[in-house]
Design a protein that fits this description.
221 residues; alpha/beta; Nucleotidyltransferase, domain 5; six-stranded mixed sheet; 9 helices; 6 strands
């Protein structure tokens, strides 16, 4: 009989990584990368640079410059496509409270757009601590290095999201091998709930073409 962990991780997940204009509380999103995982298989990707409408002060970290962001869609134009991409899935991010907080802050800047009810999410930092207790660091670079998961372009939205997707699949398998499969433990230590996305969007929002950094579309695996 399938355990809770078997059933849960056989579902749909969207792994999201956002890159920002700086490190302060008023920073804006300048890139979004996302990866769809269904039944432990990567099935689709989402990538776009976002015009943050403010100067980007940490281009040295992620490589997104003011000139790259010029002409890119604003967050309000990206949001409908992002909602469609994530629909029906569990939100996942490495250090999820940060990414969720940035997404919520961007939505709250859109008139008449209000974040709705709490949704389930998984933070791979928390998941890593349960799956591999006792490591010195649970930063994405540290975990993936320890597990020999390659990230060719650290701090790029799609690359980090793809790496986190591979990490999620590994960590879910590791939980099973450690015999951690009951719902109570997972909901207490791994699965959280937070308001993440708006339930309704203003009818005035207009979608525009995305601006992927790589210009490469997902061909499947």
């Amino acid at each position: 009989m399938p355990t809770f962990i078997d059933t849960f991780f056989s579902g749909a997940f969207t792994i999201v990584d956002v890159e920002t204009t700086g490190l302060g509380r008023r920073s804006r999103i300048c890139e979004i990368g996302a990866v769809r995982v269904e039944n432990r298989v990567i099935t689709d990707t989402f990538e776009t640079i976002v015009d943050p409408c403010v100067p980007i002060t940490n281009s040295h970290v992620h490589g997104v410059t003011d000139s790259m962001a010029f002409g890119a869609p604003g967050f309000e134009s990206v949001l409908p496509k992002l909602l469609g991409f994530t629909f029906g899935s569990v939100f996942v991010a490495h250090n999820a409270p940060f990414d969720i907080g940035m997404l919520v802050a961007e939505q709250e800047r859109i008139p008449e757009c209000r974040v709705g009810n709490a949704q389930p999410y998984v933070c791979t930092v928390r998941l890593g601590r349960v799956a591999y207790p006792g490591l010195n660091s649970y930063r994405l670079e540290s975990l993936t290095s320890a597990l020999e998961i390659n990230n060719n372009r650290p701090h790029e939205g799609l690359s980090d999201a793809m790496t986190t997707a591979e990490l999620l699949i590994d960590l879910a398998s590791r939980l099973r091998h450690r015999g951690i499969h009951d719902e109570k433990t997972l909901r207490k230590r791994v699965i959280g709930t937070k308001p993440i996305f708006s339930d309704t969007l203003p009818v005035t929002l207009t979608e525009v073409p995305l601006k992927p950094r790589s210009g490469v579309t997902f061909e499947g695996i």
